[in-house]
Amino acid sequence: MTAAMAAISLAVLLTGCDTDDGNDTSATGNLLREYQPRYEAVRGVLDGFASRVPEASPTAPVCDRQVAPAFDLAGGARLGDPGNTELVMADQLATPEEALRAEASPADYTRFSVTPGYLTHGLGVSRLSSSMSPGELANFLGYSGSAAMVNAQDQPTRLKLLLDAGLGVRYLVAVRTVRYEPATPRPSGSVTVDAYVLDLAKGDIPCRFQATGASPGVMVYEQSRPGDLTQLVYEDIQNHLGIAVDDVLTRFNGQR
Predict the structure, then answer these.
(1) What residues pair up with 219 in beta bridges, in sequence order?
(2) Residue 9's pLDDT is what?
(3) Cβ 82 vs Cβ 168: under 8 Å
(4) What is the pTM of this model?
(5) What are the backbone dihedrals phi and psi of residue 132, each rounded to the nearest 5 degrees, phi first?
(6) What is the DSSP string of 164-192?
(7) Is the pLDDT confidence value at 56 over 60?
(8) What is the DSSP letter of 213?
(9) Lowest mean pLDDT: which of 8-22, 133-147, 178-192, 230-244?
(10) How are beta strands 171-181 and 85-89 bridged, if at all?
(11) Do residues 88 and 195 make contact, with C-beta atoms less than 8 angstroms apart?
């Protein structure tokens, strides 16, 4: 999209002109203006963390201090309460919108990435909205979230739920791939990551650990779910990594 087209798209998005539902589009623009400074403040915090993630791998799961409030990782399904903890790739801390661009691009299962959460989506929509048409934004807001978000039919309500959920994230678990065995050519795979907990409110990195997500790649996937087996196994690796991370965070919660 050219700069001129982006400017036109932003004008349409903010003013509600040339759309079938001007009221919704105008309300969407107002929300973006309202929330953008808050998301830019979060972006500044992430910029500060980007160069501070340790290069050394954790030797054991450890927290340097008690963490409060407790970790609440909602998990890959994003159903129900969005929680206060999400995963992010460590190399995308300074440019979280890159995760959204990658998600929208043709799948590359040779490189592991976690599923972007609410905070990443909020950062993305607050920054990328200038190059989105109203239709593209509507597709973006199709991101599956909480039950309330799924049931919200109008675009402004969905956007507000997404933006509020993103700002409710207190902890980011920044992960860096240590070892990845993709689901090709065999129908199984695994990933091991270094994980560092970033406390966005206190500005420190209180906890660190390693986690592994593995998919057995059993052929039952082909029988129970349609789609490419490589994709299904990749998603299963993502899901199992989320479970492994949540297990460690739950143990940390028990040490409080």
Answers:
(1) none
(2) 33
(3) yes
(4) 0.82
(5) -105, 135
(6) HHHHT--EEEEEEEEEEE-SSSSS-EEEE
(7) yes
(8) E
(9) 8-22
(10) parallel
(11) no
